[in-house]
Amino acid sequence: MKVVDLFCGCGGLSLGFEKAGFNVVAAFDKWNEALNVYNLNFKHPARQLDLTDVEYCAEMVASYSPDMIIGGPPCQDFSSAGKRDENNGRGDLTVHYAEIVSSVRPTMFVMENVDRIVKTNKLTSAMQIFREAGYGLSYRIMDASYCGVPQKRKRFFMVGKLGEKDGFMDAFFEANLSDKPMTMREYFGDTLGIEYYYRHPRSYARRGIFSIDEPSPTVRGVNRPMPDGYEIHHNDPVQSKDGIRPLTTKERSLVQTFPAEFQFAGNKTDVEQMIGNAVPVNLARYVASAIERFVEQEESQTGKANT
Fold first, then answer.
1. Over the stretch 215-262, which tens digit does the pLDDT of each residue have?
2. What are phi and psi of 245, to 5 degrees?
3. Cβ proximity of 253 and 307 under 8 Å
4. How far apart are CA 101 and CA 70, in angstroms?
5. What is the rounded CA–CA span in Å between residue 116 and residue 157?
6. N or C, which end of the chain has less CB nearby within 10 Å?
7. To the nearest whole percent, how much of the chain has pLDDT over 70?
């Protein structure tokens, strides 16, 4: 199955789908720095494209004759890290994604976003576009820590297929979830060389120190040092700040389940943002594997019906 990745970022979604056996043939994004990283790590081309130009984008994507389009339109206008104003402009990219997919009409598509998108009018508009184009829709908010990622990170995934009924993927989303969240120690063992680490809280009313015997909190697009004046929070699992440090940039990419050999390049601010914005590779692989199982079952049933 040939796949094109729109809003590809540095490639977490693409890599997860490749690891599940899909053939990603091209990728597009507007962010040049992320494209540079993508092209360092993949053999297929990733090109810069203004994804607000729906007609031209659809023409470019269609030239690859994809069976599936995957993508995560930028979500800052929906995110808890942003101002949550879906009309700031970037929220429109969700609708543009739906328009591009519906123009190209691949057999299937995947759209990924933050969990808060379910409360927005932009998602309602996008779903209407998909349905008018003939797609059945199935969606779920996935917690990455139940999908092979040592991180509490909730993301929205919607899968569409031409001619299907809504909810066709629901059982497949559920089938292989872990029965408990993955901890940092379960994923890394003792290779990090630490028992506790600092992650800058959004508010000092929240704790900032975490144990490797729990999942990491959501990896964000900034990575600040622990300030000298940080006071131990009552929920911090330590009594002293001695030896506590934030995770390094490389460690944060590993928490996002990028492989150790994955290459990042660019200034620190851009790289930290790429990592924070990325889809965890193992979460993408989980979703891709669920789609693969659905397709295999459908092909098996079709084969039986034809015999």
1. 999 999 999 999 998 999 999 999 999 999 999 999 999 999 999 999
2. -140, 160
3. no
4. 9
5. 12
6. C
7. 93
Average pLDDT of every residue of the chain: 93
The mean per-residue pLDDT over the stretch 97-117 comes to 97
Active site residues: 75
Give the CA angle between residues 71, 77, 80 to the nearest 5°. Answer: 100
| Cβ proximity of 142 and 170 under 8 Å | no
What's the residue count for the chain?
Answer: 307
Q: What span, in angstroms and rounded, lies between the C-alpha atoms of 113 and 95?
A: 12
**Architecture of the domain delimited by 2-178+278-305:** 3-Layer(aba) Sandwich (3.40)
Verdict on whether the full-model pTM lies above 0.90: yes
Q: What angle do CA 180, 185, 187 make, to 5 degrees?
A: 75
pLDDT digits (tens, 9 = 90+) for 132-145: 999 999 999 999 99
User: How many other C-beta atoms are found inside a 10 Å radius of the C-beta of residue 52?
Assistant: 13
Interatomic CA distance for residues 8 and 30, integer angstroms: 9
Q: Which of 64, 258, 68 is nearest to 169 (CA)?
A: 68
Over residues 58-84, the pLDDT tens digits come to: 999 999 999 999 999 986 554 444 454
- Rg value, the chain, Cα: 20
Alpha-carbon span 279 to 71, nearest angstrom: 10
Residue 116: how many CB atoms within 10 A of its CB?
19
Mean predicted confidence (pLDDT) in 12-23: 98
The pairing of beta strand 68-71 with beta strand 2-6: parallel
Helix axes 121-132, 92-104, angle to 10 degrees: 10
